[in-house]
Give the backbone structure.
Amino acid sequence: MSEKSVTFYVVESEFWPVAYRAIEKMYAIGENALFLCDSDEEIGFYNAKLWTFSRLAFIPSGNKMTLPCEDAPFCHTWFATEIVYFNNPICLLHNGLDAVRSNDISKFHRVIDIFGPSAMQAANGRAEFYKRSGFHTQKVWIRKCNSWESGKLS
């Protein structure tokens, strides 16, 4: 497996389309993902959105409210409010949650951290935490005028 990496996406609009594309990409390359949410309500919202985002794509997903945890290995994407490994995820995806600061992320090989420009200071703190946790490869993409530009956390 390659070096541990973090990709930061700075978005001014809705978080969900970027998250979905990341999930779709992880599914295409065969990497299971844990989608970390703030609350059970958020889990329900994003899990439901996954089923409606694309009529052509089927990405097996679940959460503790829809499936028994023992069935999680059959799900590419597992939605949870805490770091769990029910579906053996390689990728951790979240919307800029500072709650991610846990030694539990050491089992992941990829982190996708999506947040708005107003949360840049908190993202800098997460970047330092990720480095201390062995995620030395970090890339920042900033959404500008319908395109993505390479950037830096500031």
